[in-house]
## 1
Amino acid sequence: MAVRGEPPKQGAAMRTLGIIGSGNIGAAVARLAVAADIAVVIANSRGPQSLTELVDELGTRATAGTIEQAARAGEETLLSIPLTAYRSLPADLLRGRTVLDTGNYYPHRDGRIAALDSEEVTTTELARQLLPGALLVKAFNNILAHHIPQLARPNGSPDRSALPIAGDAPDAKARAAELIDRLGFDTVDAGTLDRSWRFEPESGAYTHIYLADPEVPAGHMLQAPAAPLPADRLRAVLETAHRAKVADRTF
Ligand SMILES: NC(=O)c1ccc[n+]([C@@H]2O[C@H](COP(=O)([O-])OP(=O)(O)OC[C@H]3O[C@@H](n4cnc5c(N)ncnc54)[C@H](OP(=O)(O)O)[C@@H]3O)[C@@H](O)[C@H]2O)c1
């Protein structure tokens, strides 16, 4: 049962985004969504009662729900949980839905995953195997959570930043692009999921590209401010990205 906050408005023009994962990225995107007049149904692993504070902060457009409620809510779902948790999701509920996957592979957190270490699949191709029928779009995975509010701008702003998206379903990718535009970013189509390694960790089109000072040492990135990254510069970075040797990753 959903708790706290007003239920999203039915009918009319109120768009709803389901968010599974209420951590750094999930909460940052939720803040953008309510600011853009999009209703949010947000879930985590501990249940709706643990989301009281966040939903109070987000205001009346936000509702805390179960994972099933977030998966069923609205037109799109943002999935922002560790890779290891994908297997526990209600895959049937996500079938046919546009699912924005923010996930990355960190062996230190996720354990070693042979299909990723062998480069047989990219992270979101793995998600596609685990969530059959979901229309996966990789998005919001290459930007640090604290840079999201720093860089979000209304459409038409001269200092707007772009995020890469990748997906195999053109309609879902178009929906994701339209949603992300409302949330405050341009998008660059980085192709299909098999090419989405171009904006995974260590690829070259990963988090440091949004840093005001790209030379900031890795240990200071969480405090470092962001600077806008326009779409043409992101396109150029994607062109020169290289596939990381994931099997050598130690973090
Ligand atoms: N942090 C960043 O700057 C950043 C940037 C780009 C991409 N990413 C990627 O985005 C994903 C999320 O990162 P994050 O930093 O937002 O993570 P986080 O702060 O650790 O939050 C993870 C969220 O996932 C929820 N969760 C865990 N297991 C779950 C399950 N079985 N079912 C439903 N929810 C579950 C957690 O629930 P509880 O709150 O109940 O524990 C928590 O809300 C990761 O794959 C990460 O690699 C992160």
## 2
Amino acid sequence: MKEKLLVSACLLGEKVRYDGKGFEIGEIDRLREKFELIPMCPEVLGGLSVPRDPAEIRNGLVLTVNGKDVTKNYEESAWITLDYCRRNGITKAVLKARSPSCGKDRIYDGTYSGRLIEGHGVACRLLMENGIEVYTENEIGGLWK
Ligand code: SF4
């Protein structure tokens, strides 16, 4: 039986992004040779619609481009994601870089100017704090070792 690997659903082509789009990333698809891929979109899990207003993290709050505070949706969805990982024995995840939910190490600074700062998305942070190994789509070479 293959090991389960959580993957941001948008990286597997699911049209769940804020703008209703997904990504086609062949290298991620290749991970099927080694893992059972489990697509997950924390923002949709948190009750947000597709499409939706883009959001960024500012001063610890997740705010949409129109100033709506959606922090609670993001936090709830992060816990749902962690709970799913725990119940299904998932210890590794590939998450979309720079997202306010899924981003790892670098996220947008909350000004909608494209500037990046150090930080994690809400779901990524919770998963990492609870021992899940997180990779971005740019780091998946680490999963072939
Ligand atoms: S929350 Fe994560 S999985 Fe969902 S669209 Fe954003 S980056 Fe992709």
